[in-house]
UniProtKB/TrEMBL annotation:
This is UDP-N-acetylmuramyl-tripeptide synthetase. The modification N6-carboxylysine is found at residue 250. Pathway: Cell wall biogenesis; peptidoglycan biosynthesis. PROSITE patterns: FOLYLPOLYGLU_SYNT_1. Residues 46-93 form the Mur ligase N-terminal catalytic domain. One of its GO terms (cellular component) is cytoplasm. GO terms for molecular function: ATP binding; magnesium ion binding; tetrahydrofolylpolyglutamate synthase activity. Catalyzes the addition of an amino acid to the nucleotide precursor UDP-N-acetylmuramoyl-L-alanyl-D-glutamate (UMAG) in the biosynthesis of bacterial cell-wall peptidoglycan. UDP-N-acetyl-alpha-D-muramoyl-L-alanyl-D-glutamate binds at residues 51, 53, 183-184, 210, 218.
Length: 547
């Protein structure tokens, strides 16, 4: 999965045309900055906020933050040269700046990263106190954030809203999509985008909130109308260390200063959902939290305890129709056009989040009926590229997602094999590699291990760690009998297609919508959908020739 570092190229397109200016002195008072050792400029108006010196425009405040690689204060001179009017930093940054000869006012806080959001909120007036901003929906969880935000915006559009979107695939804040480099942008971008959206008449926005975003204060100063939780399974342990800490990072979204209400998915397979619902109730009050139970929806503890349960699931086309039933007898009929049982969970969460924002149930039902089915495609998420063999590209890049995707593509009649092509990213959670190999061998018939984004790591050992997990599972009697290691990725995709019979299903997992592989910081063009389509066309041309 490529999450290329932001280079500031799109920053301009995220800014509103009319920021509200605050003076440096006002922002110093807001942050409670320990000192403003300004040699000049305390009365200067601040019209923008940036975290990266390369994005500075005249009138900006540059937040010089300590980083993993370097302290941002090292770039303060560049920021000043580009027209920054003030610097926000920590004591270490202030020390570095003292010797650097910049004469900008410096706001010094113990934890400046935590102030970037509130300062950006003030400067851009991203959520006016009079409530004239858009309705805001946040989705967090290991898997399903992107899909759920697409579902949410579909429902909102069906209700007549002009919608915005902030997430992994793209940012929609008007007619032209803005490329997305992070699941959740940095705080200055989040606030400038919210202001831009308001300026452009967007009335409701769905937004993904990653655990990185919560840990790195990217959504500080934002208040959501409804926050939703999809699930918590293994990923990102390189950042969080343990599942308990990963949970705590996500739980930060479910506090009264961040959201008015919450909707939480409960599943027998994911104990973190019940824990999150409990945490949300403690923080927001029971009446502001709704839950929906997935598995065991007709029986079992979760279902009994949940507000909403799923009933009457029925395959319709490649999607699913189902009914959401409340303990008090209310019902909502939903039809999602996306395949996979997990997309029922995502669609249910989306619909309930919109309901809980205050839309009358009858109005919502009418909108769902008039726009049936709800969302038929999300780029790179269970995206159907060809049939016979059924060929899909998906973004599953952690063990739980891989299991669910492989289960959902298994042909119902039991005929046909499942062939999976996937790899693991370099320089990210290494513990998930053999687990992904194992689950792939348990759920698929043919496992083809290849490269994902190696980033700066040698791809050979990554492939071997994934393959080792798969081979171990095969030795334990897993479903798969073949574990192939094939590189480069395009060749692996062509190999899968050549091996497939018409009744088989091929799933190319892990990179979804992405169009380039990050190899040592270089973007190498590669689109799984294009490769898969090309391979299928070659196969079909060959089959025709032989007839
Ligand atoms: C691991 C991580 O999240 N790192 C974040 C961190 O970077 P860092 O500490 O390494 O920063 P650094 O390179 O040492 O630089 C220090 C400071 O100097 C600044 N700088 C640096 C160079 C320069 O020329 N000018 C300049 O001003 C930087 O903006 C930074 O503020 O602080 C930076 C801003 O302060 C973030 O942009 C950066 O996110 C990077 C880009 C990233 O790729 N993060 C990924 C892992 C991420 O956040 N992913 C999540 C989850 C996705 C998922 O769910 O799968 C996401 O939301 O996308
Ligand atoms: N509710 C779910 N439960 C488990 N797996 C899911 C769920 N929804 C989607 N997936 C799987 O996870 C993959 C990623 O889905 P999606 O992009 O919606 O999630 P995400 O949380 O936004 O991921 P990321 O943060 O990595 O972008 C999908 O391609 C699918 O394989």
């Amino acid at each position: 999965m490529a999450t290329s570092a932001h280079e500031g190229g799109d920053a301009q397109s995220m800014r509103p045309s009319r920021p509200v200016s605050h003076t440096v002195a006002e922002l110093a008072a807001l942050t409670g900055a320990e000192s403003v050792p300004a040699r000049s400029g305390a009365a200067e108006p601040v019209t923008g906020v940036v975290l990266n010196s390369r994005e500075v425009q005249p009138g900006d405040l540059y937040a010089a933050l300590p980083g993993a690689r370097v302290h941002g204060a090292r770039f303060a001179a560049d920021a000043a040269a580009a027209g920054a009017v003030a610097v926000l930093t920590d004591p270490e940054g202030a020390r570095l700046l003292a010797g650097a000869g910049t004469d900008l006012p410096v706001l010094v806080c113990a934890d400046p990263r935590a102030w970037v959001g509130p300062v950006a909120r003030a400067v851009y007036d991203s959520q006016p106190a009079d409530g004239s901003g858009q309705e805001l929906f946040a989705v967090t969880g290991t898997n399903g954030k992107t899909t759920t935000t697409y579902f949410i915006t579909s429902v909102l559009r069906a209700l007549g809203h002009t919608t915005g979107l902030i997430g992994t695939i793209e940012i929609l804040a008007g007619d032209t999509p803005i490329p997305s480099h992070l699941t959740t942008p940095e705080a200055p971008h989040v606030h400038s985008l919210l202001a831009l959206m308001r300026e452009r008449g967007i009335t409701a926005t769905g937004m993904e909130v990653s655990s990185h975003a919560l840990e790195f204060h990217r959504v500080d100063g934002v208040r959501y109308d409804v926050a939703g939780f999809t699930n918590l399974t293994q990923d990102h342990l390189d950042l969080h260390g343990s599942m308990a800490e990963y949970f705590e990072a996500k739980a930060q979204l479910f506090t009264a200063d961040r959201t008015r209400r919450a909707v939480v998915v409960l599943s027998e397979e994911d104990p973190w959902g019940a824990a999150m619902a409990q945490r949300a109730r403690e923080n927001l009050g029971t009446e502001r939290v709704s839950t929906v139970a997935l598995r065991g929806s007709d029986s079992g503890e979760d279902a009994d305890a949940a507000d909403w349960t799923l009933r009457s699931l029925e395959r319709r086309g490649i999607g699913t129709a189902f009914t959401l039933t409340h303990a008090d007898g209310r019902e909502l009929r939903v039809h999602t056009g996306l395949p996979g049982e997990f997309n029922v969970a995502n669609a249910a969460l989306a619909v309930l989040m919109v309901l809980d924002s205050g839309v009358p149930l009858e109005t919502l039902q009418r909108a769902l009926d008039e726009h049936d089915p709800l969302t038929t495609s999300v780029p790179g998420r269970m995206q159907l590229v060809g049939t016979a063999p059924t060929s899909l590209v998906d973004f599953a890049h952690n063990p739980d997602a891989l299991v669910r995707v492989l289960r959902s593509v298994r042909p119902e009649n039991g005929e046909g094999r499942v062939i999976v092509v996937f790899g693991a990213t370099g320089q990210r959670d290494t513990t998930k590699r053999p687990i992904m190999g194992r689950v792939a061998a348990e759920e698929a018939d043919v496992v083809i291990v290849t490269d994902d984004d190696p980033h700066g790591e040698d791809p050979g050992p990554i492939r071997e760690q994934v393959a080792a997990g798969a081979r171990e599972a095969v030795a334990d009697g897993a479903r798969a009998t073949d574990v192939l290691v094939v590189e480069p990725r395009a060749t692996a995709i062509h190999t899968a297609v050549r091996m497939a019979r018409p009744e088989d299903a091929i799933i190319v997992a892990g990179r979804g919508h992405e169009t380039a592989q990050d190899v040592n910081g270089v973007n190498v063009p590669l689109d799984d959908r294009v490769e898969l389509r090309n391979a299928l066309e070659a196969l079909h041309a060959h089959t025709k020739e032989q007839k």
